[in-house]
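Review form for a predicted model. The reviewer records the input and the model, then writes brief findings.
Reviewer: anonymous (R2)
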Amino acid sequence: MSLVEPLPSNRSPFVDQVTGLSSAAMFRELLGHSLLRSRRSPMDLAVLRLHLDGIPELAGDPDVAGDPELAGTPDVAGDPSRQLLQLAAARIVSCLRAGDVAARLAGPEFAVLLENTWSPSDASVVAQRILAAFRSPLVVGDAELALTASVGVAVGTAPDRARDPAGGATAEPGLAADPATSADAFIRRAELAMEAARSAGGDGFRLSATAPPDASIQLLIRTTDLREGLERDEIEVAYQPVVEIDTGRVTGFEVLVRWNHPTLGLLAPRDFVPVAESSGLMERLGERVLRQSLQQLAGWQRDHPIQSELSVSVNIASSQLHRDSFPAEIRQLMSDSGVSPGTLILEVDEAALRVAGQGTLDDLNQLRRAGVRIYLDNWRVRPPAIPPLDDLSELPLDGLKLAAEVVAALPDEAAMDTARSALALAFTADLDPVVAKGVETAEQWRILAELGFRLGQGYRIGTPQDATETGALLAD
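Model under review:
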């Protein structure tokens, strides 16, 4: 039985009569309301626009007979076009969280609204989950149909709440102040990204730029440009110190990647990591960062024997994490570099861990047995709890990092409660330590110390530095 039943009576303009999902008109209205709400929220919106690739020629009821991609041959197996769309809708809904909205727009095209996202990475995880769901055949009548999907992702905010790179508020180009116009612009961005995914052969997703690209941004977002940057060794690594809050002693460094672009200058991760994630280059980029970081750490451990327990923390993208060969690759990189056991920390984002299957969890446990520590990155209390994060003790984790936006809100009472909850959860799950990210003021430092945090990082503590500058810091 389909998870999404059509509504045969009461033909509402706000409900798709074939799948029971929201209609295109309803989706546009809901997106407009979400844009208004987002002005009072620190979180982003994401729209995913999805087209089913390889749709067979099927006829159906009046709701789908007019769709050129779903018409052409006599009806078989009791309205197969209707069944196909219902099964597709069920696959999409199964990949979403409570509160997310799915809609059918026209023919084999759907849309999803994610109202509470923290970054393009969150939306990318949902896109990858949907793509994976469609790689299993759909059974329509007596036939198994092998379909794939093309997904376009647009992430952003309401116009008067868009954040600039420094964390302030700016107007987002391309979204007008009127919610209806803003919704249309959002949907159009997702459509353009979806068409790019289709042009690339389907069975993939593309992230939309937040504004109409000029010549320099076009250069940036081209996959070939990033590929050439990797070949030219333009990827650089910076190191931000993690210190003991009570003593100031450096215990390790978080690795931050930069792209030293020949014409655009030094680019931050937000400017090119989404390109790597959507183009299949994330594995190469991640391997480059890991190899460079481990070789540098091994050198520091040799040069400073008294700090043999010095560690590096490297953030791992979901596309890396879900590869079967990932544990073996990490072990090989550790062996090649000769770093001390227990001094490599892999940071896994909360969004990626929320959708991790048992195989991924087994891989993480395998890495822990090899001496790698696993931290949950960007921890935020986000009710309601979603398995598997409602019980941290069941997860292959050694520590967690409190998200920078929680630290930035201190001494707000809600942020204080979140910080206390992180410590309590870590204690219950036998995790140590909890690292506070984004410490930028003396007041935040004081509050974190009073709450019982042992480790912290941020501009108050130390800015990211290249390997030479970091080595000089260790020599002091």
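Findings: Residues 1-10, 57-78, 160-180, 211-217 have pLDDT under 50 and may be disordered.
Further findings: The chain is about 40% helix and 20% strand.
Recommendation: see findings above.
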